[in-house]
Amino acid sequence: MLKYVSFAIIVLLFASCDKVQEPFLENHSQNIDTATYVKKVLIEDFTGARCGNCPRSHEKIEELGELYGDKVIAIAIHSGYFAIPTADYPADYRTTAGNELTTFFGVTEYPNGVINRVQDAGQYLQAYTAWGSTVSAELALAPELGIKITNSYNSTNRTVSISADVKFLTSIDEQLKICFYITEDSIVSPQTDYSLTPNKVDNYVHMHMLRTAVNGTWGESLPLASYALGETVNVSRSYVLNPVWNENHCHVIVYLYKESDNVILQAEEKKVN
């Protein structure tokens, strides 16, 4: 199983307890050992608790995790028709970010996924049966960036302070954007599974569930549009976790992508606590 200082602004997000602090950005140069970093791949898995075929994509993520270890990072995005709560499936796991991503990528069939936001024949979406080959091809590429996440969690006020150091392993001359997401594992809640009879699994364990996008669905631009080999940028954020979430099962995911074509260059994941 696969298991993110000049001034501060506190912003109210989805619930009154969910708050975010503006980042402190720092740019400097330092020597870098490029062998320290490896290419990682982000899978955005569009799913829903009432989608009877979606456990197959969950199994594919587990399979890829066993094959590649922490080089594969997943986000389970509950959205669309199959994520709408009902009497038998009362929990609502939809998020603003998840809904926006679903609309942008044109998700109408479930399960479906996006791998590093690379396109195949002009399409972002791929069936889970095709994920293996795309993940393999992406992992074969040399990393252009390295990300180091440092989290500090305050259990009294449930605030996680996130610091991400982005290290450039090659020169990049285009605008990049950085995103901070929070996911949660080990959420026990019903799931439909058409491979089983009866097909409603009451104690299904949901993993990698998207909980929030700390700095917005599309993140924010790095301060410069050009970086040389060896440069480092630090981006820091803080966020107050919803009291419903189990901080011991939450992860911070940080990823950077190209503004021009949305391709994700690098991703990293680290437990909140």
Q: What does this protein look like?
A:
- With 273 residues, this protein is mainly β.
- The protein has one domain: Sandwich (Immunoglobulin-like).
- Helices cover 12% and strands 37% of the residues.
- The protein is built from three helices and 18 strands.
- The strands form five sheets. Strands 1, 2, 3, 7, 8 and 16 form a six-stranded antiparallel beta sheet that branches. Strands 9, 14, 15, 17 and 18 form a five-stranded antiparallel beta sheet that branches. Strands 5-4-6 form a three-stranded mixed beta sheet.
- A hairpin with a 7-residue loop joins strand 11 and strand 12.
- The radius of gyration is 18 Å and the shape is globular.
- The two termini are 18 Å apart.
Give the SSE layout.
Blueprint (H helix, E strand, L loop, with lengths): L9 E3 L6 E3 L3 E5 L11 E7 L6 H15 L3 E7 L17 H10 L6 E4 L15 H9 L5 E10 L4 E10 L7 E9 L2 E2 L2 E2 L7 E2 L3 E2 L2 E5 L6 E2 L9 E10 L9 E9 L5 E8 L2
Parallel strand pairs: 4-5
Antiparallel strand pairs: 1-2, 2-16, 3-16, 4-6, 7-8, 8-16, 9-14, 9-15, 9-17, 10-13, 11-12, 17-18
Question: How is this structure best summarized?
Answer:
By secondary structure, the protein is mainly beta.
The domain count comes to 1
Tell me which CATH architecture applies here: Sandwich
Shape: globular
Helix content: 10-25%
Low-confidence stretches: 1-24, 26-30
The largest sheet, given as strand count, sense and whether it forms a barrel, is: 6 strands, antiparallel
Count of discrete alpha- or pi-helical segments spanning 4 or more residues: 3
Distance between the amino and carboxyl termini: 18 Å
